Amino acid sequence: QAKGAVWEDAGYVGVWHMTGGSGAETDATGHGLTGTPTGSKLPEMASDANAPVGLGRVNQTTAGKYNRLSVPNYNDFISDHSLFTVSGWFKSTDATGYPRPMSRKTSYDQSSGWEIQYNQNSKTQCEMRGSSGTQVTMDGPDVTADWVHLSYVFNGTTGTAYANGGASKKSGTIVAVAKRDDSMAIGNNSNGSEQGWCGSYDEVRMYNGVQSDARVKSEYLAMTPVFLANDGAKTLDPEAPELGECTLKKVRDGEY
To answer: Cα-flanking dihedrals φ and ψ of residue 115, to 5°?
Structure first.
């Protein structure tokens, strides 16, 4: 099976591993939603070797309305524009203004699209909006102190925000996301007219559907150091039995 088909068959619209450094970022699903570096300070966009999963990407190092990773129109790959989940790892070096980790709007109160935004000069308060200015605000960990995994579930008129698999969580009422025909952005809004993400991001994903609490948590845990150090079963399920060492013994030629 093709590598991209694995992500596509698992229900993802787009997956960006952030291995492209300063260049274009390939969509791992095979949908062709390649992220294009866009902005006026592109020399600041580079690889981040200290990301949670392999390499990450630095969006910009100077606070301001500068860079973004522009992702093409994904309408052909989503079943319902009001039912989806977006997630990713983020770390900020400067929380000035209203920085956007992800967005498919050009202004906060547009009547179509969606966006994720940190509150003004806040290191902890992150907001999600559907197709209006109505928002759900979550108090999460300090995004300047360490990497934070953010997940946002858009479920019609209900929005649920998660940090680090649900260590922080907030649900509330939003206006259901209405279809748009423009690009999505990672690190700013769609046209780069707001505060760009000053810092880095890694392993950004968009899922075609509403993820459950358990799914959000397991996706986060699967990218944590404990899981990546080959103790995944115990990380996802503390009650899972310990597995002993396996020895391969030859019985006869061709049989083990």
So the answer is: -165, 160
